[in-house]
Design goal:
homodimer, about 290 residues, mainly alpha, Arc Repressor Mutant, subunit A, Tetracycline Repressor, domain 2, 2 domains, about 0% strand, flat, disordered C terminus, DNA-binding
DNA sequence: ATATCGTGGAGAACGTTGTTCGCCGAATGA
DNA sequence: TCATTCGGCGAACAACGTTCTCCACGATAT
């Protein structure tokens, strides 16, 4: 460079002490996996808004530009993070006796994955849910629904619906947590408790003539925790699904030991046409 | 070329023709509402990623810094846009005979609002759903559910669930539309048709031994359009809700003319405790 | 053992973003 | 008519994603 060197702590180490130290560090040649590792580290510490390429590079002790030899763009980095989230997610073999519980277990496992890292639901929401790597999971989920006896028309729709519920619920959960953490540092349960009390008081303070139901429910609006709310929503969906079992000649409730993964051929096309899963129609035109 | 004026259309108009023209323009003194108007204009033209304070200012013909006298930050601008989306959204008086249809109509109206402007679901998802301005809508929704005969425990949960489904579904819808628009300019139905064909072919091309259900459903995975898929999911939720009607001594299905908005007192606390609507429990700790 | 080559990381730079600071010009009250 | 106040303007700042050029290192060939 044409000018003088910067102040001391920005100087690179002297060669005789840098060389021996660099050996162990430089021998790990910075793979995409390591970049994703560092990105997760930064994500948990700084949140999605604080997840910058510069910070990821700093986490690895490398230059920013070095990252681009392995990930090509920040979007691809987020994509890799998204895919890793589902790595090793097992969906059990269909057991028609327990299909409701199996669906719930899948949803709980998904929520746990989303909550495992900060702002994960935001990342998840920003990606189209079915990449090639996720096809096995999709297949096993379809097996769950079809073997339960759900009509194909419903099977094709419920996968998207479940993941939408999963991601949407967890996203909202994250947002409350973030808002809470922002307004005061106490990330313990005390802050939650106080906010619940505040909300309850707020609802109760509304004019009862204009908000009869809101005020009537105020005492309990802040009562259940997130786990219970998640379960309640899940239960609504599963109950809704169950109403399709005694339709179209499908098995009535949850008969024993019938269909397993191999029953695809015999129920192939159902009553008439079956219907769309990941397929999407036309985009509804913007209306003003 | 540090000096020289730019080409003609970037030049401001001459004073003698600008002054009379500026009168009507400058007499509109740049309210927050006008900023939001311009922001919507930019949003529809450039998308959320292209929604820049600089572009909004350009749309208004003002300087960027002028915006900050009225909106204070981009986040607040997005908040105002979010709130305007619900302005004038009417939720009908509860009709216990038609509660299922009323819920569906609300959801359809919500989806229409979200689709009315580009990337609106992304904005909506980023905001906590219940601001003070939205309380009347929330109240009327609670009325719908309670008058239908749903237990308070369910009423408190289903509002969030419906809006989650609404926003999540539309968000995914938007993402497909955006991806489609990006990969080729043809925003007509032809592009959608081609993509559906591609997806169908892709699913069908998978190895049937590893993906029996996916291949079995391939022919119909891309069959329904978004409207039908939305309705199908809605139907699942409503059916799930209906299963709660003959519980806890609530009315069996949809009896005539009972309860209206004034019935809050008599069914106040139901069987035991009722449960949380917007309240959220503690944040589940990150697990690694 | 020496010279050559190629790869991958380093550093600086570019264009763009949200936001802030100091200034000016035009309305308004005395 | 003067002083004041307020809203818009231009420039600037820090930080972002991304790209460019260059250099040092290890492996290969002679």
């Amino acid at each position: 460079m044409s000018t003088g060197p910067a102040s001391d702590d920005t100087l690179p180490a002297t060669p005789w002490e840098r060389s021996p130290r660099r050996r162990p560090a430089a021998r790990v040649p910075l793979t995409p996996e390591r970049v994703v590792d560092a990105a997760y580290e930064v994500l948990d510490r700084e949140g999605l808004d604080g997840l910058t390429m510069r910070r990821v590079a700093a986490e690895l002790g490398t230059a920013v530009s070095a990252l681009y030899a392995h990930v090509s763009s920040k979007d691809e980095l987020l994509e890799l993070m998204y895919q890793r989230m589902f790595a090793g997610l097992e969906i059990p073999d269909p057991d028609p006796d327990r299909w409701q519980e199996q669906i719930k277990e899948f949803a709980r496992a998904g929520r746990a994955r989303l909550l495992a890292h900060r702002d994960m639901a935001r990342i998840s929401m920003a990606h189209v849910p079915f990449t090639a790597g996720l096809l096995p999971q999709l297949e096993r989920m379809l097996a769950l629904f079809r073997n339960a006896g759900l009509p194909d028309r419903i099977t094709a729709v419920v996968g998207d619906m479940l993941s939408t519920y999963l991601e949407g619920f967890t996203l909202e959960e994250e947002m409350w947590a973030a808002r809470l953490a922002a307004q005061d540092g106490g990330d313990g349960t005390a802050a939650w408790e106080r906010m619940r009390a505040e909300m309850e008081a707020y609802f109760a303070s509304l004019p009862p003539d204009r908000f009869p139901h809101l005020t009537a429910l105020s005492g309990v609006m802040a009562d259940e925790d997130q786990d219970q709310r998640f379960e309640a929503g899940l239960e609504i969906i599963v109950r809704g699904l169950a109403t399709y079992l005694d339709e179209d000649g499908a098995r009535p409730a949850a008969p024993r030991g019938a269909a397993d993964t191999a029953d695809t051929a015999d129920r192939g096309a159902g009553p008439g046409r079956t219907a769309g899963g990941t397929g999407h129609g036309r985009p509804a035109p913007p209306q003003d």
